[in-house]
């Protein structure tokens, strides 16, 4: 486990210097995504094109105003999208694909914390307790924008996708071949397990199909963010208090996540990282059959079949 001082030194050393990176951060308007945006902007010293995707323009504007002034030709922008709808994700992906030449870093961290039960979206998948936001939107962004990452890679530049969720959980028990949409056996816990497992599987499936790109599932640790905003009064206060005692800041989380994004040792393939940038070693692997099942199910949902 690298010490935090080593993370800072590595990030400084490994930051892209000869290029102007393009970074798209879905969930970049708060929390872990915000931390990554700020740290990327710091190391690129204003020489980056950073796109924040989320619902809150106000939050995005506040973050953008705090970043180092963009140098000539660089820019920071907000793109509005409620990612609980795959139609919305498709509209934004097509917009980005039509006007960006490449993507170097695609960071996926949209999230909610909710105790509510299953609430199907227009795509027939669970919205309220995680899965659409924590998984399907991320899969669709990663798959639909992969050609732009391939372009970056073909030019000899970094090309990395980082999904920030719970890379320590997940495993074969999260794949239910007869209930992939989790319609029969729904619980908040099962929804969390499924979202995490599908992120794991998607990282493996995408790495196989886009072999020149690096796909990473990272755990952020306990981070002091706005994730408990939708919890009922009382529980929100309690989790906020407990979290403040043990959590790291969004900046620390940003540095740790950027450590994986910049790590020269993982230019391609599927990677599972702890909150401190180590490889996850303690969880069961998904079989090839599980990975392919997740790929097939995800493409069906994301393509509206
Ligand atoms: N914080 C932790 O300790 C912790 C620990 C383990 C895992 N995680 C995971 O890390 C991820 C990021 O969490 P966080 O702590 O950074 O939370 P956060 O501060 O609440 O940020 C969540 C982000 O998701 C976006 N978002 C939520 N619903 C959305 C929607 N329907 N459409 C578009 N964007 C949406 C929000 O943007 P808008 O408000 O602009 O829509 C915001 O940018 C989550 O998946 C969470 O489960 C967090």
From TrEMBL:
InterPro entries cross-referenced by the UniProt entry: NAD(P)-bd_dom_sf, SDR_fam, Sec_Metab_Biosynth_Oxidored
Pfam families xrefs: adh_short (PF00106)
One Gene Ontology MF term: oxidoreductase activity
Keywords: Oxidoreductase
Keyword Ribonucleoprotein listed: no
Keyword field contains Transit peptide: no
PANTHER family on file: ALCOHOL DEHYDROGENASE-LIKE C-TERMINAL DOMAIN-CONTAINING PROTEIN, YALI0E05731P
UniProt-recorded name of the protein: NAD(P)-binding protein
